[in-house]
Specification:
Helices cover 4% and strands 47% of the residues. By secondary structure, it is mainly β. It folds into three domains: 8-149, Immunoglobulins (Immunoglobulin-like); 153-242, Immunoglobulin-like; 250-368, Immunoglobulin-like (Sandwich), CATH 2.60.40. The strands form seven sheets. Strands 2-11-10-6-7 form a five-stranded mixed sheet, with no helix packed on it. Strands 21-28-27-23-24 form a five-stranded mixed sheet, with no helix packed on it. It comes from Corallococcus interemptor.
């Protein structure tokens, strides 16, 4: 947010201070440090040479004796001249006057332009000396006060094991400019869907990140945005297409049960072999079955209610218990009214296999009153 310039009462007060001074020589400021508000504990602060909105990246200058000087205070158009802020290092740059803001003698703020702002300035990456010069003279310099970094870049994404509906799907991101000392924010984005953050993130190096696509992420094509802590970001459109292997055609028997007691059902899969069959043998995760329905404690919200006692009978059959009475409550439920049970109605089933495949059974089970 752009700050308002110093107002007339402040300008008048400053003029009074200058008039009472025994000398017209300016006070020498003291610059003690810079802060990126996005990473207050990082010294020297990092700032990206891209992005930053229309004005640039906001930075705070900490010190003392920052001294603006009023100009034309006795005219109809008074103004205030602020201290000048300059950078020197891989390139020399003076921050535009309208991008510098005075808060108090110990604090100023500035918006540092980037290649994407107006005006634009793409500072070369590297470490910069920063100087502050008061209008009436006096300069303070601070070596290695600011580090300019480029935005990250993504060159390749891969899913070594494919996508797993019931578990996290490993995702490898390759590129440059990743931060091994601080975790980036990584999100998947698709029109009509809320952003999907990736929570398990390991920065292996500044060129490789290992993360996971969360279980049951809806199928479709996603953009991926990676944002480093200092604000640098990169978006790769149509970066990832999520698809899962499918089980065969499913059916449930019985296909209904009363709301006042839990119901044991058998799920049958038409595929008896191959990747569409139920997986047998030792697996890192069990079969899981969910009833997509509301419970009485929150009848307006449809949720995935896990079936319990899920057992593999054969490559074509599972047995499980639908918690029509217990819902999410601990079993056994002694209240015959089943206060946490499933709202009567007809609902779908989701079945996940340890192989990563899944199947759905729309309108697969009816909870009768």
């Amino acid at each position: 947010m752009m700050e308002e310039p110093v107002r007339l009462p402040v300008a008048a007060a400053l003029l009074s201070l200058v008039a009472c001074s025994e000398s017209t020589e300016g006070t020498t400021p003291k610059l003690e440090g810079l802060i990126n508000p996005l990473q207050r504990l990082i010294t020297p602060p990092r700032v990206c040479n891209a992005g930053g909105g229309t004005a640039g990246w906001r930075l705070e200058l900490i010190g003392s004796r920052f001294t603006p000087v009023p100009r034309d205070a006795l005219t109809d158009t008074p103004s205030v001249e602020l201290p000048q802020v300059s950078l020197s290092g891989p390139a020399d740059y003076t921050v535009p006057a309208d991008h510098v803001f005075f808060a108090r003698t110990e604090l100023m703020r500035m918006d540092l332009p980037t290649r994407d702002t107006t005006p634009s300035s793409s500072l070369p990456p590297g470490t910069y000396r920063v100087s502050v010069t008061n209008p009436l003279g006096g300069t303070s310099e601070l070596e290695d006060a600011l580090r300019v970094v480029p935005p990250p870049a993504i060159t390749n994404l891969s899913t070594p094991g494919g996508f797993n509906y019931g578990g996290g799907s490993p995702l490898v991101i390759e590129g440059s400019g990743f931060r091994s000392d601080a975790l980036p924010l990584i999100v998947l984005q698709r029109d009509g869907e809320e952003d999907q953050p990736l929570f398990t993130v390991t920065v292996v190096s500044d060129t490789r990140i290992e993360t996971e696509v969360p279980p049951a992420t809806p199928e479709g094509t996603y953009a991926l945005t990676l944002t480093n802590p200092e604000g640098c970001s990169v978006t790769r459109p149509q970066a990832l297409t999520v698809t899962y292997p499918r089980l065969g055609t499913l059916s449930a028997s019985p296909a209904s049960g009363p709301a006042h007691s839990d119901t044991v059902i058998t799920l049958t899969n038409t595929a008896s072999s191959g990747p569409a069959a139920f997986t047998s043998g030792p697996q890192p995760q069990p079969h899981e079955v969910y009833l997509v329905a509301p419970v009485k404690t929150d009848p307006g919200q449809t949720v995935n209610i896990p079936l319990y006692d899920v057992k593999l009978i054969s490559p074509t059959q599972l047995r499980a218990t639908v918690p029509t009475c217990s819902g999410f409550d601990s079993r056994p439920v002694t209240d015959p009214a089943c206060p946490g049970g499933v709202v009567p109605g007809t609902y779908g089933l989701i079945v996940t296999d340890p192989s990563g495949a899944f199947g759905t059974l729309p309108s697969g089970f009816t909870v009768s009153p």
